[in-house]
């Protein structure tokens, strides 16, 4: 079937008009080259739109899949070339519709996703197919409600109400809770943890806009409290011990939030909030007044920063390069300073329990290396130069990043020279 785009007819596999090649590879070694068209892919798929929006994206896209959903990937690519009103008529079985739906969601093909849902909602199912359908649509949110109503016609209002109340108490949004105090907050946090792990309906609840807004409000509240109590450390020296206890309690709440937000697709909100307040945090905890105090809080802050570095460094959260540079340049000097200092305190005092253990050190080091390698070359050079200038360059060990940077720099220079040589040879031949 052909697709009209800007007055032209395109057909998948037409090498004569193709301007991009999609290479589909299965884990078992099967592969196929599909000659495609950028205008079709970009207009129908958010994945391809994002992938091909970069000026240096290239004209070759490699997609990896399993043998089980290989044909579904091929079918999806073919459906991209169909007019939207014909997609529904091409779906012929529940099995293929479910498979195409899963691939369509992964590739951000909104219209095909809607067609698959419309088809599945309208056709009869075998009993064995029902579980596959529920698994495929359970995280799609309101768009999948016609199918959900058919599979499991339950009122989600009660579940949503309980979850919202638990979130509010867990993040102290509801204010103080006498006479229960912190016990109710801890109980609410445990309830949220249980619902996120065990409640089959919770993916539909957590995709709700009101629920997401409430969690974001809780996140903002906890971070604001953290900044507020940190500021008190410098304004009232007589209350340092009492304030430290409250800060450690708030950090525990932040750690809890860090553990639940990935299950609600809100990890990026957490990371951005941490990046935003990082300067204020360091401005306080590095104050000379706190040089020999609050080691437990300082270690906890490093642990939270490590989680943020991992999320960004390993691609769980995608941030623009300037944000990644800011994150590294903000926290790398502090981590480098604190690691030997905590080690020294531990060596001097065997009862000192705030050293960075080996697992924490390795996870932070690995995340930093990954972060550095994903930055623009000039930013990599700046960070590596600062790393080599310092007296202590043992931790984190960025030698791997430095070696890769050197190799990439040499390769880039070689490509430029080769390009110039080819250009000169072409000029001479003319």
Topology:
Blueprint: E1 3-5, E2 8-10, E3 20-26, E4 31-36, H1 38-44, H2 46-52, E5 60-65, H3 70-79, H4 84-90, H5 94-106, H6 110-122, H7 127-137, H8 145-151, H9 157-170, H10 182-198, H11 202-206, H12 209-235, H13 240-260, H14 267-285, H15 295-313, H16 321-348, H17 358-373, H18 377-389, H19 399-429
Helix pairs in contact: 1-2, 3-5, 5-6, 5-7, 9-10, 9-12, 12-13, 12-14, 13-15, 14-15, 14-16, 15-16, 15-17, 17-19, 18-19
Structure description:
The chain is mostly helical and 430 residues long. The protein contains 19 helices and five strands. The strands form two sheets. It has a three-stranded mixed sheet with strand order 4-3-5. It has a two-stranded antiparallel sheet with strand order 1-2. The chain is flat and about 75 Å long. It starts with a strand and ends with a helix. Residues 18-81 form the BTB domain. May act as a substrate-specific adapter of an E3 ubiquitin-protein ligase complex (CUL3-RBX1-BTB) which mediates the ubiquitination and subsequent proteasomal degradation of target proteins. It holds the Pfam family BTB-POZ_ANK-like. InterPro entries: At3g05675-like (IPR038920), At3g05675-like_ankyrin (IPR058039), BTB/POZ_dom (IPR000210), SKP1/BTB/POZ_sf (IPR011333). This is BTB domain-containing protein.
Label this structure with key terms.
430 residues; mainly alpha; three-stranded mixed β-sheet; two-stranded antiparallel ribbon; 19 helices; 5 strands; 6% strand; flat
């Amino acid at each position: 079937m052909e697709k009209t785009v800007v007055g032209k007819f395109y057909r998948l596999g037409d090498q004569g008009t193709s301007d991009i090649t999609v290479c589909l590879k299965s884990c078992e070694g099967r592969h196929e080259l599909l000659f495609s068209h950028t205008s079709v892919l970009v207009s129908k798929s958010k994945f391809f739109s994002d992938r091909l929006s970069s000026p240096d994206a290239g004209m070759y896209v490699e997609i990896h899949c399993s043998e089980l959903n290989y044909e579904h990937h091929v079918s999806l690519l073919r459906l991209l070339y169909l007019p939207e009103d014909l997609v529904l008529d091409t779906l012929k079985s529940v099995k293929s519709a479910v498979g195409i739906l899963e691939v369509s969601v992964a590739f951000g093909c909104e219209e095909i996703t809607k067609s698959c849902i419309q088809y599945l909602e309208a056709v009869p199912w075998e009993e064995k197919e029902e579980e596959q359908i529920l698994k495929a649509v359970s995280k799609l949110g309101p768009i999948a409600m016609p199918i959900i109503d058919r599979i499991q016609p339950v009122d989600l209002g009660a579940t949503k109400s309980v979850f919202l109340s638990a979130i509010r108490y867990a993040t102290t949004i509801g204010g103080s809770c006498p006479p229960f105090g912190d016990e109710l907050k801890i109980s609410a946090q445990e309830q949220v943890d249980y619902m996120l792990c065990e409640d089959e309906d919770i993916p539909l609840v957590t995709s709700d806009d009101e629920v997401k807004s409430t969690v974001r409000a809780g996140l903002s509240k906890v971070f604001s409290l953290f900044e507020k109590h940190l500021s008190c450390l410098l304004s009232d020296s007589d209350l340092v011990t009492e304030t430290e206890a409250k800060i450690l309690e708030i950090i525990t709440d932040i750690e809890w939030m860090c553990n639940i937000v990935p299950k609600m697709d809100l990890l990026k909100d957490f990371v951005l909030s941490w990046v935003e307040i990082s300067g204020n945090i360091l401005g306080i905890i590095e104050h000379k007044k706190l040089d020999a105090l609050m080691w437990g809080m300082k270690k906890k802050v490093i642990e939270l920063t490590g989680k943020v570095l991992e999320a960004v460094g390993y691609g769980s959260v995608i941030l623009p390069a300037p944000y990644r540079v800011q994150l590294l340049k903000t926290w790398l000097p502090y981590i480098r300073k604190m690691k030997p200092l905590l080690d020294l305190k531990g060596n001097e005092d065997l009862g000192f329990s705030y050293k960075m253990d080996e697992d924490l050190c390795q996870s932070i080091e690995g995340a930093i290396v990954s972060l550095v390698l994903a930055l623009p070359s000039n930013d990599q050079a700046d960070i590596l130069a600062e790393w080599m200038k310092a007296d202590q360059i043992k931790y984190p060990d960025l030698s791997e990043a430095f070696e890769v940077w050197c190799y990439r720099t040499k390769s880039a220079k070689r490509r430029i020279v080769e390009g110039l040589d080819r250009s000169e040879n072409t000029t001479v031949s003319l």
